[in-house]
Records
---
Amino acid sequence: MVAAGERHWWYRSTSALLEQLVIPHLPSIVDTCMFLDAAGGSGATGSWLADRATTVLDDFEPLALQAATRDHDGYRGVRADLNHMPHPDDAFDAVLCVTALYHRMNPDPQRVVNEFARVTKPGGVVCLMEPGGKKLWRGHDEVTHAARRFSLAEMRSMVRVAGLDLVRATGAYSFLVPPAAVMGVLERGKNKSDVGRNEGGLGGLLGQVARAERALLRKLDLPFGLSVIAIGRKPM
């Protein structure tokens, strides 16, 4: 996954998507800010934060922390479990969490989101991105130790229950929903990951479609997607 994060079309597209969605909600002056990339892995989807200001990257896997701090100067690695975050209240101007709440290591996603809200400064933002389509379970979910997929309504609810004001909620990768549904049928009972296949995105085609979808997301929210995203702001 560390290697794939540098070249796989999904990681590249997701990094660009999150940067597009979150940057408008960050402070205008970021060089004095502190960000958190929660369960950030190798930094493949959140390094745009570390490029702007000092960013703490929490992860439980030492190899991921090693890769992130090696490849991105702005990261400070902290070995941490999202269920027991070691950070003080009101520590970060923004918290990013990508595909972690779905994992079996996190039995209570709402508790984790509550923690994100706790460590965020008043006026700061929390961005969550998780696998969407509750009926789109497939082999990749088994390989990545998934416990759940989320609906857009659940993402909205987690943000609000944590005491955050919902800024935006949208689906993403909507064009992957039909093929994912087909793969779910074909791969039933099989453990097969998406990470090692189609790294180029069918010769760049999927990356181009993702770029077109990002252009659409500049104007509106999508009601569904293979991923679901919610952004909340902590009240002042």
---
Amino acid sequence: MNTIHIVGGGLAGSEAAWQAAQAGHRAVLHEMRPVRATDAHHTDGLAELVCSNSFRSDDAQNNAVGLLHEEMRRAGSLILRAADAHRLPAGGALAVDRHGFSAAVTKALEQHPRIEIRREEVAGLPPEDWGSTVIATGPLTSPALAEAVRVLTKDGGLAFFDAIAPIVHKETIDFDICWMQSRYDKGDGADYINCPMDKAQYEAFIAALIEGEKTDFKEWETSTPYFEGCLPIEVMAARGPETLRFGPMKPVGLCDTRTGRRPYAVVQLRQDNALGTLWNMVGFQTKLKHGEQTRIFRAIPGLENAGFARLGGLHRNTFINSPRLLDGELRLKARPDLRFAGQVTGVEGYVESAAIGLLAGRFAAGLSAPPPPTTAFGALLAHITGGADAKTFQPMNVNFGLFPELTGTRGKDRKKAMSARALSDLAVWLNPSTERAA
């Protein structure tokens, strides 16, 4: 039984430790919280969700994220097991009670007989005598470790900003104005709270977002880009007056119960905890100052008296140039005893981060060769370890554009066929004896 060290107790690190331990190895998980805090975490729980509580689409046939969910389930993912156990209504998405989810992951890791959790900061590169090590420190890697990696790899480092959306107390929402409905009545048909706007209200809201006072950047932050998949609401608004109506505030598939008509624009809130008392403003990540958030967001119909459990915020995410620095099994070329996993590798999203953690844990345990590029696992891995251009590398969500082409199909049939191919190839990867027996 070998010992595998994992640095970082987020989604990727937790998944890597679980996979290594389940494969029969001893796993030592190093998590610096609560010894050292971060700018985004609020608890010392493992796999804490610091932004949205959504794992996005759970449609395994038509959506690459949903397919990745299913692949992770079939590979024995702890993260998906905990997510499924603490699922909240969210239409076709997989949203979770963030506190129940983190507590479930923490308990499973603490109770595993082959996992040891050490609450300590790894202030620099892990020592070589640790042997096989997975660095899964996420987008909030401690400065000492980030600098040590930069020096070792002779890499200038890459970064982008990520933003957090506000959370509202349900009891403060006015349901004489708002109503419960999922877009196109998906899921249970009433999984979201909807706040309607007419044209005049929408235009006034856009103007307020653009004019609102924003958080100041530090000098070293001024050249850091945003990740396109998680833009602050006010940045989207500044791109054009209709941007939000075709983005997070699109009214399609919804009907205002007061008027019987589709509203001009809609602000949606998604359940954030199992009790249903906290609701997340969907797509409303922001860098507005807290006072401005309260003023502007209370101008939304139905939120005039909103009480905020958490206001939005902005933090700087760090990631490495994986296409240049990592090999096909996530090993650092400059020091092959070190593997990287999670958002620090340049994947974006909870599910993608956990998936790379799953792969890193299996690789470190000697359990698997790289998965076929026809699978969601393999497509994502291939992109960050060589498929992407190192000169222009930016964070990437999983999507069908990363998969090898499948000729002879179009539209939804194409996605279904690619998903079927992925799950068939995944079965062989998980159990190679299947192919040999055939």
---
Amino acid sequence: MAERVALVTGGGAGIGEATCLRLARDGCAVGVLGRRAENTVAVAQAITEAGGRAIAVQADVADKDQVEAAVAKVRAALGPITILVNNAGIEEFTPFQEISEQAWDRVMDVNLKGVYFATQAVLPDMAAAGWGRIVNLTALGAQSGAANMVHYTATKGGLAAMTKSLAVELGAKGITVNAVSPGFVLTPMAQRAIDGDLFPVPYEQIVATYPIPRVGRPEEAAAAIAFFASEDAGYITGQTLGVNGGCFT
């Protein structure tokens, strides 16, 4: 993987941060993209201090111009991008009848349109190389449903369908497209939901029903992402791997 350059959106915290560190450990140069400069800079610095190559870039993935500018910076600093991890996302807990149009659009723009922008921006590099790996982050809630999260789960369900369609379209170009679907992984976003008591029941009751009755770690999701990004996954595309403690709902 030493010749590969990866771009990870939402790379400043949680699963994104763990993925940046894991891909760097596997030998990739990493573009750490996020909205908060202090977070992305810290992750990129951790990689460079460990002997790797990384650059922090700031962008709101819902803004096409910002995404394209960030991709250009990564390309100029590290080289053509052939691995893309579409991890950036936001969630919101609101009963369906109370979701405003503004809130609906914002979740759609970040979670779904952001993937569209980032993927279009890096595809020329992958096509030119005849090799590419795209890994999208969906969510268990897209399969099981989740109360008070209709707009969030709708984006993740759309992303699952987008993953399959892109896999069909891009496979002949040497580009694979797969998805990782985390269950209850303890990220800063999940911690905010716990602290805000936003789940219908205490989270301990949720994970107690899993065959592996605990919360997941960001590093465990990152390991699945790193596999899909690897040479070993070259004949795997259009697939979704659940990292969810065995919750099969």
